[in-house]
Amino acid sequence: MAKAQAFETAVGLTTTKAPFIEEAVNKGQLYIHQPYELYSEENHEAWRCLFARMQDRWQKYANPHFLRGISNLCLDPDRVPRLEDVNKFLNPLTGFKAKPVSGYVPAFLFFDCLRNREFPTTITIRDSKTLDYLPEPDIFHDIAGHVPMHTDRAFADTLVRFGECAHTAAELVSQIPDEQEKVRRVASIIKAMARFFWFTIEFGLMKGSQPGELKVYGSGLLSSYGELEYCVESPDVQRYPIQLEWVINQGFEIDHYQPLLFIVDSFDHLFDLVGQLEQWMKDGKLNNVAPGEPGIGEADIRSFLEPVKG
Q1: Fold for domain 2-309?
Q2: Exposed, middle or buried, 310 (CB in 10 Å: 0-12/13-18/19+)?
Q3: How far apart are CA 69 and CA 73, in angstroms?
Q4: How far is 279 from 168, CA to CA, in rounded Å?
Q5: Which of 139, 159, 138 lies closest to 149, judged by CA?
Q6: Model pLDDT for residues 27-50, shown as the tens digit of each residue
Q7: Where are the domains positioned within the chain?
Q8: Distances (CA, A) of 68 to 71, 73, 84, 174
Q9: Which of 43, 235, 263, 283 lies in disulfide reach of 12, CB 3.0 to 4.6 Å?
């Protein structure tokens, strides 16, 4: 027992290598606690390196709401954050809180968390030898990329509105008598919502205060040292004012820098777009979106069908 505990302490909470997470997954535990004592010095060093190298790029490319959020959260630049400390600063501002999870959250449950002002948060951190790219989310992406935006009231309300769309979708598909059509239609709606989330919350650009200026608000960009600069400066990136019909029909791939990004005017604009997305859902405009990525898994489909049944 002592030897096993020593091994876990040495490994720490490194993404894809944490026994604590494996045990939680095997037990079917999605919502967990953050065992802070398990973080290794290498884990803290990874956080320290990730946080330090982002400072100049955040100042240059991040939107001002994010910069205020980073300041308001009072994150320790040298240690992996304790989620309870993050929530002490976050919750009074917008009612949001970081909620630790063991891994992938099925789509409806994820959106329902947003509706309840909870953000499913990964507690592991990438290996210090692979700081530049990680296909899985980690605590740096979630806390340093997403959560600062949650300190902004307009953005937080947009996330809640987005979460409410999932309930609208579940209610709409529950009224379809044919089971096969029900599955087909909910898969299309989830695909549309996932694409919208990707091109806004994860990889969104926003107009800056100066003519022609662009600022970043997407968390996938804000947590990437290389892509944060690339998304604004590279001539290889296509950047267009956002149009809902483009976004919901545009596939994406996660394993390379994004070649296509969309620009919103403001968070009020984004909030209105979510309302438009919900109305299109009610009007049936999301029932047959273009095929392509992302793939929609059985767990995601089931998560939308089961809440209404229950």
Answers
A1: Phenylalanine Hydroxylase (1.10.800)
A2: exposed
A3: 6
A4: 10
A5: 159
A6: 999 999 999 999 999 999 999 999
A7: 2-309
A8: 5, 9, 20, 42
A9: 43
CB-CB neighbours of 157 under 10 Å: 18
Q: Could you report the per-residue pLDDT of 102-121, keeping only the tens digit for each?
A: 999 999 999 999 999 999 99
Locate 99 and state its tokens.
């909620």
CB within 8 Å of 283: residues ≥ 6 apart: none
Give Dmax over CA atoms of the chain in angstroms: 63
Long-range contacts at 304-307 (CB < 8 A, ≥ 24 apart): 304/107, 304/108, 304/166, 304/169, 304/170, 304/173, 304/186, 304/189, 304/190, 305/170, 305/173, 305/174, 305/182, 305/183, 305/186, 307/108, 307/112, 307/170
| Dihedral angle of Cα 102, 86, 91, 266, to the nearest 10 degrees | -90
